[in-house]
């Protein structure tokens, strides 16, 4: 019999914990690869609690339960999770390390799945809770899986070959670079569990995770340039086997853990952000030595080669045409009052899907009207969906996966009739001014994203306001829409990647914003490519940004009087580029709309 209520599911989990002789269990949103988006089979937190956000975790003891989320999900968690079953905890103000000793008796044994947590996470928690009488216990199997009767199977979609003309480098070349790194670092092999790293290294793609074209698999790469790919047999096609060649051995994904014992006496590198406890335990049990070092594919993957850059430009042109057609449709239909957030997101997806090259969206569209736009990570569903009110601001953050690139764009528009308020125009223009300053930035080699963040915030700060998210994240090449290691964010915020040096070829988002709770939100996001810059008399190497995203900005929200002559010139030049790029891809009323919206300020 299937358990329909979350109360029944929680009770079943507690019975399973008693059966295993433990006093509690930690439930993350995670898979064995530490992916940002996880497959349905790994949505254990959602099954147990009903929470549909993309970040958070729960902890269950025999008598207590709590769900931990950050400020992005304060409202959502209360709408989706029963407060009679789970206490709401807000991180970082409240922590698991603080909660466990409060609710556990001395000597409590709290279990965790070693395939869903990193070594550093467990080690840090142990240091905090062990002195307070709580012991963490790794389990051989996940207790939720034992009681989740209708748990979905992992995706059986086949893995596909990513054309080398789009990849720009052969897999053999990439593996040789990893081999050189291993020799230099003194290791025999490196375990690569991150799905996008596997995809990049082997020039393969898949359809196992929503919005990220990856295949569930692991790689062990060795210092002789060979590698082992661990993947379910049903995913392997003759084309994939031919593509991988003799230097890549294909083994069943189920054999991965046992295969780690084959490295007895050898030195193996593990990335601390992606290698879960289960991998480290299996290596140690098998007699291997391991050291935590950043996966050598991560920085190489972030620096896009000329073929990947070209593919990204093509993807942006395709996407810009679809988004522009949507914005024209929205301008006509939304003021009538009959368009809601879900309908708008569906219409935008339909415009994108008219391109036969689109394989997926790159993330769930943030379609946010009125006060919902003030929630930076709002996710519309049947329960939260509202009509887009006439005379309001609408924000849409969306993207697509195309043959050559991954897109991510945010546009904020005024929905008529009438005019936006002076406050709305002021805030939007301050966001735009920061966006322009970051887009125009020139900086010496060695600069990191954390040093550039203030450029995007300065005009908001002058107005006494700010935004609580980062300004820019890395973007993959037909891979993850959020890709490290680079990032533009406040360096003091503990954000990973803000200290990463920026290199020519990296792609980042440029997305400052402003959010007035309950009223409206504004974000302007384009993707940018780090490129070398020549400056007369320059001493050393200098870099800047090439803007990649081309869709009109909403003129109704721009207070021209707040822009300098240089900023007006930037907007006019940007709109001229939009027009030139999209004219061959649009016709009729769509083309006329773009020409009108890109006229000089």
Automatic annotation (TrEMBL):
GO terms for cellular component: cytoplasm. It holds the Pfam family Peptidase_M24. InterPro entries: Creatin/AminoP/Spt16_N (IPR029149), Creatinase/aminopeptidase-like (IPR036005), Creatinase_N (IPR000587), Pept_M24 (IPR000994), Pept_M24B (IPR033740), Peptidase_M24_C (IPR032416), X-Pro_aminopeptidase_P (IPR050422). It is an enzyme of class 3 (hydrolase). Residues 541-601 form the Peptidase M24 C-terminal domain. The keyword Plastid does not apply. One of its GO terms (molecular function) is metal ion binding. It comes from the Bacteria. Residues 9-140 form the Creatinase N-terminal domain. This is M24 family metallopeptidase. Belongs to the peptidase M24B family. PANTHER family: XAA-PRO AMINOPEPTIDASE 1. Its EC number is 3.4.11.9. Keywords: Aminopeptidase, Hydrolase, Metal-binding, Protease. Residues 313-532 form the Peptidase M24 domain.
């Amino acid at each position: 019999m299937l358990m329909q209520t979350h109360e029944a599911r929680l009770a079943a989990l507690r019975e399973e914990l008693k059966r295993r002789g433990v006093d509690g269990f930690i439930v993350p949103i995670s898979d064995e690869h530490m992916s940002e988006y996880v497959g349905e089979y790994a949505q254990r937190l959602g099954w147990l609690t009903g929470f549909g956000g993309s970040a958070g975790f729960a902890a269950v003891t025999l008598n207590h339960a709590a769900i931990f989320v950050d400020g992005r999900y304060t409202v959502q968690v209360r709408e989706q999770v029963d407060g009679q079953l789970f206490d709401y905890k807000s991180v970082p103000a409240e922590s698991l390390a603080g909660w466990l000793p409060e609710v556990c008796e001395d000597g409590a044994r709290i279990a965790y799945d070693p395939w869903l947590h990193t070594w550093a996470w467990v080690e840090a928690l142990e240091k905090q809770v062990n002195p307070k009488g709580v012991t963490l216990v790794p389990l051989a199997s996940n207790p939720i899986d034992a009681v989740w009767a209708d748990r979905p199977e992992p995706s059986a979609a086949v893995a596909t070959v990513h054309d080398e003309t789009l990849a720009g480098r052969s897999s053999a070349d990439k593996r040789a670079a990893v081999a050189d790194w291993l020799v230099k670092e003194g290791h025999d092999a490196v375990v690569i569990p991150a799905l996008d790293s596997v995809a990049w290294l082997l020039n393969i793609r898949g359809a196992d995770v929503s919005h990220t074209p990856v295949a569930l698999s692991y790689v062990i790469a060795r210092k002789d340039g060979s590698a082992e790919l661990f993947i379910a047999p049903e995913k392997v096609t003759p084309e994939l086997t031919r593509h991988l060649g003799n230097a890549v051995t294909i083994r069943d994904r189920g054999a991965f853990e046992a295969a780690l014992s084959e490295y007895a006496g050898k030195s193996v590198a593990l990335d601390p952000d992606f290698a879960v406890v289960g991998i480290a335990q299996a290596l140690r049990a098998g007699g291997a030595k391991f050291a935590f070092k950043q996966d050598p594919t991560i920085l190489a993957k972030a620096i896009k080669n000329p073929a990947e850059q070209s593919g990204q430009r093509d993807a942006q042109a395709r996407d810009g045409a679809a988004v522009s057609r949507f914005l024209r449709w929205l301008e006509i239909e939304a003021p009538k009052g009959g368009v809601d957030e879900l309908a708008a997101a569906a219409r935008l997806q339909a415009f994108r899907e008219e391109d036969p090259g689109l394989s997926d969206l790159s993330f769930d569209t943030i379609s946010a009207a009125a006060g919902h736009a003030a929630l930076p990570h709002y996710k519309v569903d049947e329960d939260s969906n509202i009509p887009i009110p006439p005379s309001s601001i609408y924000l849409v953050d969306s993207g697509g996966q195309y043959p050559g690139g991954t897109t991510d764009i945010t546009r904020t528009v005024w929905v008529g009739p009438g005019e936006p308020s002076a406050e709305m125009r002021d805030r939007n223009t301050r966001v735009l001014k920061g966006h322009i300053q970051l887009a125009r930035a020139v900086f010496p080699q060695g600069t990191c994203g954390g040093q550039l963040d203030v450029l995007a915030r300065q005009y908001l700060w002058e107005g006494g306001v700010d935004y609580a998210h980062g300004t820019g994240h890395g973007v993959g090449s037909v891979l993850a829409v959020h890709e490290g290691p680079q990032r533009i964010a406040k360096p003091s915020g503990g954000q990973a990647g803000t200290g990463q040096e920026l290199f020519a070829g990296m792609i980042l988002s440029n997305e400052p914003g402003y959010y007035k709770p309950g009223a409206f939100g504004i974000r302007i996001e384009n993707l940018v490519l780090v490129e070398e810059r020549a400056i007369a008399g320059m001493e050393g190497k200098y870099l800047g940004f090439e803007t990649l995203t081309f869709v009109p900005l909403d003129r109704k929200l721009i207070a021209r009087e707040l822009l300098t002559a240089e900023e007006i010139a930037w907007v006019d030049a940007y709109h001229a580029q939009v027009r030139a790029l999209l004219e061959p891809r649009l016709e009729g009323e769509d083309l006329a709309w773009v020409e009108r919206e890109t006229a000089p300020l």
